[in-house]
Write a structure and sequence with these properties.
The protein is built from six helices and 17 strands. The chain is of the alpha+beta class. The protein has a single domain, classed as Roll (Pnp Oxidase, Chain A). The strands form three sheets. Strands 9, 10, 11, 12, 13, 14, 15 and 16 form an eight-stranded antiparallel β-sheet that branches. A seven-stranded antiparallel β-sheet has the order 2-1-5-6-7-4-3, with helices on one face. Helix 1 crosses helix 5. The protein starts with 13 loop residues before the first helix and ends in a 19-residue tail after the last strand.
């Protein structure tokens, strides 16, 4: 069935526009942006969501802290009754920070990613209904992302009841959390702009996105104030700056690291800043910027995962990137 499409006005808010202007892409994206951002999900996006055994979600709490989370289910647990409705037949785990943020009218970001095909689609929407075992979202923005920096790994849903996840909160990262971060080749980031900070005609709310690199591309150090600091290279992408544009206006973010062997999930609340120059940036091959995340707190969910992951096949785009070992 043909879906009438509303061509949105310039979909980029002031933070995104500022960074697009900085790198010389503002004029081009002002022209094509209204056609890249849709008010509905095209059929290929709907088909992808229907195949996935997990999706990534982003939300923001009352204190302005974004959170990135993952929900899991057998194939078909996500479906689209129509092009403007996404139904997720699962809820975050009891200890997951996103669970308490789900209410009618809440803005939620969704990332549908199929790592083994390196396909990913984004959808930002509003909770329209809550059910005992899931919720419905009304689409506000739908757009695709390129396959860059995605490590190809299969995710398989495992039938059978598992033990509920055990939660451990941390004011500072422990050795296991630090080890997971330092060996990661993938993480997910939720960012947000409160509605009061953007023009009412522009898209706003929550984004959740993927970041990938060589294993160890996230550097973890202890800052002068005693806080943990993560430094991440930011590679060439689509120049829309959905995530960094949000951070320009609201520098908090929520990170999610997944232990693909044990199944643990590590949620990290951070304060972010973008570094556009410096010796470290110049020495890290392929990096166009660095992003530093100051850790505010962390939550580890151990057990409860119903996914089995294959070994990764690195993205071919990583051949053009360096490592922290090669920096001065």
């Amino acid at each position: 069935m043909k879906t009438d499409t509303i061509v949105l006005p310039d979909p980029y808010h002031a933070g995104e526009q500022a960074l697009q202007r900085r790198v010389g892409w503002r004029e081009r994206l002002a022209e094509v942006g209204p056609h890249l951002m849709r008010d509905h999900m095209p059929d290929p996006h709907r088909e992808l969501f229907g195949r996935l055994p997990f999706v990534l979600l982003g939300g923001m709490d009352a204190a302005g802290q974004p959170h990135a989370s993952m929900v899991m289910g057998p194939q078909g647990f996500v479906h689209t009754p129509d092009a403007r409705t996404l139904v997720i037949g699962a809820l975050p785990e009891a200890q997951d920070p996103l669970l308490g943020l789900l209410h009618v009218g809440a803005s939620i970001g969704v990332l549908g990613i199929e790592p083994h095909t390196r396909r990913r689609n984004r959808m930002n929407g509003v909770v329209r209904a809550l059910h005992a075992n899931g919720f419905e979202l009304r689409v506000r923005q739908s757009f695709g992302n390129c396959p860059k920096y995605i490590q190809a790994r299969h995710a398989r849903w495992v039938d059978g009841a598992g033990a509920p996840a055990a939660a451990q909160r941390m004011a500072q990262l422990d050795l296991a959390a630090a080890s997971l971060i330092r060996s990661a080749d993938t993480f997910f980031i939720a960012s947000a702009v409160p509605p009061a900070q953007v023009d009412s005609t522009a898209a706003h709310g929550i984004d959740v996105s993927h970041r990938g690199g060589r294993p160890g591309f996230v550097r973890l150090q202890r800052g002068t104030d005693g806080a943990d600091v993560l430094t991440v290279p930011d590679f060439a992408g689509n120049n829309m700056f959905n995530t960094l544009g949000n951070l320009e206006l609201h520098p908090r973010a929520g990170l999610l690291f997944i232990d693909f062997v044990q199944g643990d999930r590590l949620h990290v609340a951070v304060e972010a800043r973008v570094l556009w120059q410096g010796d470290e940036l110049a020495a890290f091959a392929g990096a166009q910027r660095l992003v530093q995340f100051h850790v505010r707190e962390a939550l580890r969910l151990s057990g409860g995962s119903r996914l089995a992951w294959s070994d990764p096949v690195p993205s071919p785009f990583l051949r053009a990137t360096g490592s922290w070992a090669g920096t001065r």
